[in-house]
Amino acid sequence: MASQSLVEAIDALKSTRVRMTPQRHAILEFLYETKAHPTADEIYKALEGRFPNMSVATVYNNLRVFKEVGIVKELSYGDSSSRFDCVTTNHYHVICKNCGKIVDFHYPGLDEVETLAEHVTGFEIENHRMEIYGTCTTCKPSH
């Protein structure tokens, strides 16, 4: 059963006349089912068994299309590979400094930051991003 968010993402693609190929659907479905903020390579590896003729370039090209439509965000953290996240609600990321694991963190109280920033600076604010760094439970030494 597809999640409502996945259905809405597919509808958004259809409204922009983007053809829904089986590979495109599988990439999108994988993104909506995983909570791991995968890299393009991780998506490719997860799907190559189902689509042996699909290339890493196909995954990158589809992710670019998803970004342009506004259903996927690219998260780059200064390392060589970006991670991808479905656009669902405003949320933040807690990132393990050791293994790179990313976990979503919801904090609605920060929504007013954009309004305040706009008021103070006169900028027209489009969005914001916050990252919190620490050590995950797997990497944290036990006492």
Shape: globular
How would you sum up the major sheet? 3 strands, mixed
- Strand order across the largest sheet: 4-3-5
Beta strands, count: 5
Radius of gyration equals: 17 Å
Approximate helicity band: 25-40%
What is the helix tally? Answer: 5
- Estimate the strand proportion: 5-15%
Mean pLDDT figure? 82
- What is the rounded distance between the termini? 42 Å
Q: What's the helix-strand series?
A: HHHHEEEEHE
Structural class: alpha+beta
Low-confidence stretches: none
Short account of what is shown:
By secondary structure, this protein is α+β, with helices and mostly antiparallel strands. The protein is built from five helices and five strands, in the order H-H-H-H-E-E-E-E-H-E. The chain starts with a helix and ends in a 9-residue tail after the last strand.
Give an overview of the whole structure.
It is a single chain. This protein is of the alpha+beta class. It is 39% helix and 15% strand. It is built from five helices and five strands. The chain has helices at 4-15, 22-33, 40-47, 56-69, 112-121; strands at residues 72-75, 83-86, 92-96, 102-105, 131-134. The strands form two sheets. A three-stranded mixed sheet has the order 4-3-5, with no helix packed on it. A two-stranded antiparallel sheet has the order 1-2. Strand 1 (72-75) and strand 2 form a beta hairpin. Helix 1 runs antiparallel to helix 2 (22-33), helix 2 (22-33) packs across helix 3 (40-47) and helix 2 (22-33) crosses helix 4 (56-69). The longest helix has 14 residues, at 56-69. The protein is globular, with a radius of gyration of 17 Å. The model has no long low-confidence stretch (mean pLDDT 82).
